Amino acid sequence: MAMKTSTKFFWLGVLIIALGVFVLFNAMIASLAIVTVTGIFLLLGGALQIAVGFSAEGLGNRVLTWCLGGLTVFLGWSFMANPLAGIISLSTFLLILLAASGIVQILFAFRVRGTRFFWPLLLAGSVSVVLAIIVLSSPGAPLVLLGSLLGIQMLCSGASLTMMGLFFKDARQ
Questions:
Q1: pTM passes above 0.90
Q2: Can you tell me the distance from the alpha carbon of 87 to that of 91, in angstroms, rounded to the nearest whole number?
Q3: In this predicted model, what pLDDT tens digit does every residue of 35-52 receive, in sequence order?
Q4: Contact predicate 155/20, CB 8 Å
């Protein structure tokens, strides 16, 4: 007997929620895993870019492709050789993006002042900037940031899959 679609979604969501909780309780290990996987993909991508460089037209394009591929390989190797530095650099980059996104939202809020979008944009941008400052000023936070974000994302995905399973059950599919 085949399992219903609603049941599949529900139990997949429950499994992902359980794994998300596991990741949240092991955020440092999850951060190390993220950096390791990122390093592997950077190594593979850089090697592929170097290989593609051999078929590039023109010496300038070929050299540029090789240099970018070499830099990508070096970045991947550095993530693999020193994962702690990789965690810190990826977390710092993520926090810079969070702060920059918040600043852009705040600036845009003032561009749409007088509309109904002003306060939500101002609030969202302010929360992003304050969150980036708080996390950046916490000594151990960058070490667990990547794993914590992965765990939170898994909890949200699992919850949405579980809700989809319940929706499909109610819709009799």
A1: no
A2: 6
A3: 999 999 999 999 999 999
A4: yes
